[in-house]
Amino acid sequence: MSDTKGSSFMELRRGPWTLEEDSLLIHYIALHGEGRWNLLARCSGLKRTGKSCRLRWLNYLKPDVKRGNLSAEEQFMILELHSRWGNRWSRIAQHLPGRTDNEIKNYWRTRVQKQARQMKIDSNSSLFADAVRCFWMPRLLEKMAASSSSSSSLINQTSLPSSCSTAVTHDHHHQYQADETVNYQYSEGGFDDPAGSQLLFKSSSNSEMMNEIPNSASTCSFMDDDDELGTLLENSSFMDDDSSWLVDELWHVRKVHEWGGGTGI
DNA sequence: AATGCGAGCAACCGCGTTTGA
DNA sequence: TTCAAACGCGGTTGCTCGCAT
């Protein structure tokens, strides 16, 4: 079972890869292709396990791996797909070309869970899901709208109760492939419609439009009970930047959720 | 300038699944 | 059908770098 058996006589390297190791790996794969990682590890001259070689290639050296910050669209996709699939990082990564499961996992842990920690709530709770859906995702949509006047390949919609939606204006209609059977669609009307609070999916198999609200049982219901707070939140900027919300305000959300008999944490 | 600390990310580890002999 | 090897996924660790003191 051990990946290192058979090469136990050889001292295996660990830790950061050197340029020489990278070029060895790239060269070997150029000649022999991907796969058979243990064979590669034995034959390439690398003193690494097959696992290590595979990881290095897939997460860093592979030509189509994107580097750099995640775009608003990519962040939106991660939030949306995670709400549907949970920690299925590789599955989520399949829908973000050039991004790896490791990168997405790191994003979730360092950025998303950080927000949950600041709010002192469980990142797996419905409350946090509400906050993401009501404040973070609309903010990303705003950013996407602002930048999409140039160009955009992705887009979406989300389940935004009218009480939660911020002023989002769009001049564009976008579409992206979400998985084998579902196309996500977003159009401007979806947000302008006061009742436009649902996630719309267009089945590619039967072309029917379907309404779906992930986590619908808890979707922002707490907002309906507090118009004053709703106004406050709508008028507020909930992220100082890409990943930092105004924690004090979100703390109020938490309190309203708890006191208002919300879905709990 | 030196030190401490935290965020971000690359890499490792354990384990479940798949493959093929 | 069985079993060992290989593969892939998700959780965790630890290194690096930037910022604050």
From TrEMBL:
One of its GO terms (cellular component) is nucleus. Residues 9-61, 62-112 form the Myb-like domain. PROSITE patterns: HTH_MYB (PS51294), MYB_LIKE (PS50090). Residues 11-65, 66-116 form the HTH myb-type domain. GO terms for molecular function: DNA-binding transcription factor activity; sequence-specific DNA binding. Keywords: DNA-binding, Nucleus, Repeat, Transcription, Transcription regulation. SUPFAM superfamilies: Homeodomain-like (SSF46689). Its main location: nucleus. SMART domains: SANT. This is Uncharacterized protein. It comes from Dioscorea zingiberensis.
